[in-house]
Specification:
The protein is α/β, with parallel strands linked by helices. The protein has helices at about 5-15, 20-25, 30-45, 50-60, 75-90, 105-110, 130-140, 160-175, 190-205, 225-235, 250-260, 280, 295-310, 330, and strands at about 65-70, 95-100, 120-125, 145, 155-160, 180-185, 215-220, 240-245, 270-275, 290, 320, 325, 340.
Length: about 350
């Protein structure tokens, strides 16, 4: 019996390595010329798996990529849990790519869409540069951005309204009698960092509280960096009675520092996070946090992308997800569940959260 074509024979016919053949046949990112040679050799030899045959016929891979800043961040995990089932129900596989918030890597992902290794892309960049906007405008496959980009960019966009979210948190703290409300942020050159810094100042102004630079500290959107920032803040402003943290990971770092310093939460210092990840509910004390609807944003992004794949000519859409405040023990001493406080309405502006 004659042996059928194998990856080895395809590699010899195409003049490429066995690894290159494997990458092409499994739909992984590969140079366009290599894809052409491998698929041509496979077709000549009669080695055409069903998925490759469909791709040859209609230029679809039935794969979608999700590029995120940090695959270990619970925010993105929550998004994946909603994105994947929506895509799976429509017959698509989900590929995950962690960029480490590296702009060059994100641009490579966007420019690589021309190689057609996926049919579409969902991405959530922490920074949006002019290069991002140019690459988005020139993208050769549908893209949905979870975050905030100018509407004239012409891509589908799912936003969080953390402006309203910060206001909900500060209103809550003010209502508890807190007046020395400090803010611990991530990098201000990121979309969420810039938006939350502006929202903090606006909320203070609305409450009639003065802005004090000594009550603001910048770190990064991670637990260890959050702890470092809180230590620096307490060293110069020991009289703070509340901490507004730009995400839950920073807030967890704050709880670590306050515990070691012998500061009681919430009696001495109330603490609020943002994102309302699962970590907020298992922290000790349980963390009050602003939910920016990570699951809802993920689901909306997947639905927008599927609609775009079917209707590529429609105008770009912007979806803004309303925030909610989940009140727990770190502010109000609630120890038997959470109280969800809905946002005051959808904002006109929004941005992505890490």
């Amino acid at each position: 019996m004659t042996e059928g074509p194998t990856i080895n024979t395809i590699a010899r016919r195409a003049g490429v390595s066995i690894a290159s053949v494997s990458r092409v046949l499994n739909g992984l990112p590969t140079r366009e010329e290599t894809v052409r040679r491998v698929l041509s050799a496979a077709e000549e030899l009669g080695y055409v798996p069903n998925s490759v045959a469909r791709s040859l016929k209609n230029r679809r891979t039935n794969q979608v990529a999700f590029a995120m800043a940090d695959i270990g961040n619970p925010v993105y995990l929550a998004m994946v849990r909603e994105i994947q089932p929506v895509l799976r129900a429509a017959g698509y596989r989900l590929l995950l790519h962690s960029t480490d918030a590296d702009v060059a890597d994100e641009l490579d992902v966007l420019r690589g869409l021309g190689e057609r290794y996926v049919d579409g892309l969902i991405m959530s960049p922490l920074r949006v540069t002019d290069e991002h906007l140019r690459a988005l405008a020139a993208a050769r496959a549908p893209v949905v951005v979870i975050g905030s980009v100018p509407e004239e960019t012409g891509v589908d966009n799912v936003r969080a309204d953390s402006r309203t979210g910060v206001r909900l948190a500060l209103d809550h703290l003010y209502g508890l009698g807190r007046r020395r409300i400090a803010f611990v942020n991530g990098p201000p050159d990121t979309v969420p960092g810039a938006a939350r810094a502006a929202a903090y100042r606006e909320a203070l102004d609305a409450l009639g509280l003065p802005y004090d630079e000594n009550l603001v500290e910048v770190g990064d959107f991670y637990r260890a960096e959050g702890a470092t920032a809180v230590r620096a803040l307490l060293d110069r402003a020991a009289d703070v009675d509340a901490l507004m943290c730009a995400n839950d990971l920073i807030a967890l770092g704050a709880l670590d520092v306050l515990r070691r310093a012998g500061r009681r939460v919430p009696e001495d210092v109330a603490v609020v996070g943002m994102d309302d990840t699962y970590l907020a509910g298992v922290a000790w004390p349980a963390l009050t946090s602003v939910s920016l609807g990570s699951e809802r944003r993920g689901r909306a992004a997947a639905e927008l992308l599927l609609d775009r794949l079917e209707n590529g000519q429609r105008q770009a859409r912007v979806v803004t997800v309303e925030p909610r405040l989940a009140v727990r023990a770190s502010t109000a001493g609630v120890r038997d569940g959470t109280d969800d406080v809905p946002g005051a309405g959808e904002g006109t502006e929004g941005e992505e959260s890490p």
